[in-house]
Amino acid sequence: MTDAITMVRRNFTHTLRNPGAMIMTIGMPLVLLLVFVGVFGGALNVGIGPAQHSGSYIDYVVPGILLMTVGYGGTTTAMAVNRDMTAGIISRFRTMAISRTSVLTGHVVGSVIRTLVGTGLVIGVAVLLGFRPAGDPVQWLATIGLIALLALALTWLAVGVGLLAKTAEGTAPFTLVVQLLPFLSSAFVPPDSMSGAVRWFAAHEPFTPIIDSLRGLLLGTPIGDSGVAAVAWCVGLALAGYLWARALFRRDPS
Amino acid sequence: MTSTSSVPAIAVRGLRKSFKGTVVLDGIGLDVDEGTIFALLGPNGAGKTTVVRILSTLIGADGGEVRVAGHDLAGEPDSIRAAIGVTGQFSAVDNLLTGEENLVLMAHLHHLDRAAGRRRVAELLDQFDLVEAARKPAATYSGGMRRRLDLAMTLIGDPRVIFLDEPTTGLDPRSRRMMWQTIRRLVAGGVTIFLTTQYLDEADELADRIAVLDHGKLVAVGTAEELKRGIPGGHVRLQFGDGAGLDAAARALGEVSRDDEALTLQVPSDGNVAALRALLDRLELAGVEVDGLSLHTPDLDDVFFALTGHPTETTEAHQ
Q1: Into how many domains does chain A fold?
Q2: In 3D, which of B94, B12, B103 has the Cα closest to residue B52?
Q3: Taking CB atoms and an 8 Å limit, are A89 and B97 in contact across chains?
Q4: Are residues B90 and A13, on separate chains, in Cβ contact within 8 Å?
Q5: Prediction ipTM score
Q6: Per-residue pLDDT tens digits for B37-67
Q7: Are the beta carbons of A92 and B101 separated by less than 8 Å?
Q8: Which pTM does this prediction carry?
Q9: Which domains does chain B show, CATH number per domain?
Q10: For residue B301, which of A89, A206, B232, B246 sits 20 to 30 Å off, Cα-Cα?
Q11: Closest-CA distance of chain A to residue B109, Å
Q12: Between the CA of residue A7 and those of A241, B102, B106, what are the distances in Å?
């Protein structure tokens, strides 16, 4: 436990020393927010229509942007874990009589907190741009809880990717997935407006119920059964990511 | 070696390791007495780093028995980890942290209390000449400074056995000498050192005992003197101005290897000054003019050639 706290502290110092990690986490989502609200917002608002969604487009798109923020947070974690592996500091930790997985715990806790701060900043900017959340305190708590759970899931997956990749470039597939999946979900437009296989995929991929739940919680609208699906996906992905990362970490380093 | 240490600091029997079907270590056995320096000498790819990685609990072995600091490697790896320190090619510092923060991190991981940790960090910064750079990120350190910080981090926990994997590879001569001094100081304090090196002179300079590793097998174990004895690599090279001089010298000296094109003779020598003087006296008596003389001491290539029958560069081709 002491070792894990030491490692979390190490991770905080890294974040402070390396502001690029935070910029990378929130930079791209903020750009997408500006593009989708400023450029496509008017057209999309008309297209999505009041039947799907009442209010302005920014209210519709922010939950998806938050999910992307969490995804980019995972990307920086994958690269940080990979840097630890390739720079050899993890080899040093492994030859010391410390808790085996404390270094991973440090990354995960540090990353989840960094991601929560990042999503908070994104929400702040969104409010400045006209985002009007309408959730009550319980719904806000549920929002934070769901984002934290999602961050936990994506972070464990990112740790696995970071452990698996032989170089920092090797983490690119993870980045691609977290960049691409939101577009094939309900993040920017409702899946109902998509066609064929894309529509089916968007309706069934994990990000859609998570985004729908976040949207309902933030706007104070009913979320139906997407809440259960969202939590189930997050817990499932977190568990899978954790077991995968643990198995990778137990291998002999090459 | 002290008479009280009946249990060796490191004891290895029949150590085996393969990677994807390639045998890297093929039955290694060695003992290292407490408070001594043991050097594992060999060319790149001989398996030196693999030995260190196994002995330091980083990777598993396929077979064999290993005891480090009295603990069984297979059964009590954590007891071994508590007793050892590792610095090497694969060990590293945290680039984003400053030198001081790196040491404080190690102090925390060794569960030193605040005051003791701070004292130890200050001590090591001073000892390793890192006081000025203490507040700078390790990423900005030179190669020599990184190596010193790396070793300082290893020493925070006062390890009884230290593994140094090629501690001076890539260092400039001054840093190299500083590293040697540090290693000697550690051993004087009772620590056992297991180091790997590609350099015979380093092993010669530091080690109480040397083992030569080739193709995953130990081809020789002994003191530097024992290893170098009888190695034909040491010789005096005599340069002559013309063929007549070469002929005359060859007649005067008897059995020597000659190179007619380069007009040189190679006379076996262990670098003994008296023998060298006698050699020159014989040439003067014979009235031979020597243009130039150079002394060649045996190097790793010579040791290798003598022990394995093939030079280091072509080890793969001979397999």
Answers
A1: 1
A2: B12
A3: no
A4: no
A5: 0.84
A6: 999 998 888 889 999 999 999 999 999 999 9
A7: no
A8: 0.81
A9: 10-93+141-228 (3.40.50.300), 235-297 (3.30.70)
A10: B246
A11: 6
A12: 20, 12, 11
